[in-house]
Amino acid sequence: MKFIRKVHYYCDRISHEIRLMDAKRMLISGAIFLLLGITSWFIGGAPDKVNMFFIFPRCALPIFHAFTIWGISFLFCGIIFGGVLFGCEKYKRGHSSKVALFIAVMHLFTICVYPTFFGALSPFFAFILLLISLLFCFLSIMSCVKLYSLWTICLSIHFLWLLYNSYLALAFTFVN
């Protein structure tokens, strides 16, 4: 019975967070994060040089799928940022600012990965940047675990995506 009550309480918290969402601000911040990510793609250059110099590990996604999922990830991260920053009560403002700062720093290191990997042809430094991004993602998860249920789940999914990409960058380093 306790388990059912905890699940019910958890679902109530998620529905409360959904009611507090400001969809317009969340989509605007998601679009800003996506544009920053796409700008980093233009700065990093085309992935053709990687195809010539590196052997792809078996765990690597095709380039088109990777770009699509990275774009969704940037948009997703911006939506989380907007939801945390603009969709909270007054008593949560201080904590939500800290979570939003962690997300912004995480995104900053994440958008530096593409120019480092494809522009500088340095998968090991891209791995280091992804580890730093993973650290800030973990800090944001730990900061919002008691405040937000929905955003904790979303950040956990983003953490898994960053973990996969750090594994992939390390695989590129070892294979080549």
How would you describe what is shown here?
- With 176 residues, the chain is mostly helical.
- 34% of the residues are buried.
- Helices cover 82% and strands 0% of the residues.
Give descriptors for this structure.
mainly alpha; 8 helices; 176 residues; 82% helix
Summed up:
It contains 8 helices and no strands. It is an all-alpha fold and 176 residues long.
- Strand content of the residues, in percent? under 5%
Give the overall silhouette.
elongated
CA gyration radius, whole angstroms: 18 Å
Derived structural class: mainly alpha
How far is the N terminus from the C terminus? 54 Å
Multimerization state:
single chain
Major sheet attributes: none
Low-confidence stretches: none
Q: Give the helix level as a range of percent.
A: over 70%
Mean pLDDT across every amino acid position: 87
How many helices in DSSP terms? 8
Q: What's the order of the H and E elements? A: HHHHHHHH
Give the tally of β-strands.
0
Please give the structural blueprint.
Blueprint: H1 2-20, H2 23-44, H3 48-53, H4 63-86, H5 93-111, H6 113-119, H7 123-144, H8 150-175
